[in-house]
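stuck on whats below:

***
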Amino acid sequence: MKRAVVIAVAAFLAGAAAVAVPNRMGATQILLAVLAAAGAALATALAVRLAMEERSRRQIEEARRQLVAAASHDLRTPLASLRLLVESIDDGVVTGETRDRYLGEIRTHVAVLSDLVDDLFELSRIEAGDISWAMRQVELGDLIGDTVAAMRAPAAERGVKIAAELPPGHVVAQANAEKVQRVLFNLIQNAIRHTPADGSVTVRARSEGGDVEVEVSDEGEGIPAADGERVFEAFYRGDAARGSEGAGLGLAISRAIVEAHGGKIWLEPGSPGTKVHFTLRGA
């Protein structure tokens, strides 16, 4: 920021010098005035750019600190549990059925840690542009139908109805089917998690101006408008953030996958419950 201030002062002085040139000027004086004015404009532009870069650096650093803090929190909890469980077994404090139960809990915590590391690795690769997905024509009606069918059992456990509403004919996108299904699973799981018993989750798809638009809606508590953009950030948890029971990476990975396909993802503002939309390129 100090560099920006210095350059801004230089721009002011250069501009003042240009204004002070007399009305009757020779060619040399005119050239000097033009150069002074150009220098003032360039210096001002540099000052603005440096100020923006400084602000951007601060924002990046703050985001990095928040990410490290959130990741540390999500790693600390299962690691602390693992340490206690292992120490109890190692000290011979637990035996028999209790020991077997502790071993089962250890496997669960290890699986959680493994999933978290895998998600972080995938997110970092996608955001770095390290993508080698095979893109092809995907019939989204079939993909959505298969995904909804796979989610009926967990939905039924919570007393939630789930359905797909698809237009007649084909809805085809140019995409990687496995990655798009990952997005659908993330969105549907969040929707089920935040929908009360006897509520419903609905997945819709339609062609829209050459693209394909998918919507996952629920009848849950909704998301505050202030959290509308931030819920797609890694580890973010607002009052009703959709990843509150997990590590907060599901929506971040979904956004990264959608954007890597050339699409966009957003929350529909002002709607009851929550409606998440995303687009893909039509085939």
Summary: The mean pLDDT is 77. The CA atoms of residues 195 and 220 lie 4 Å apart. The first strand starts at residue 136 and ends at 139.
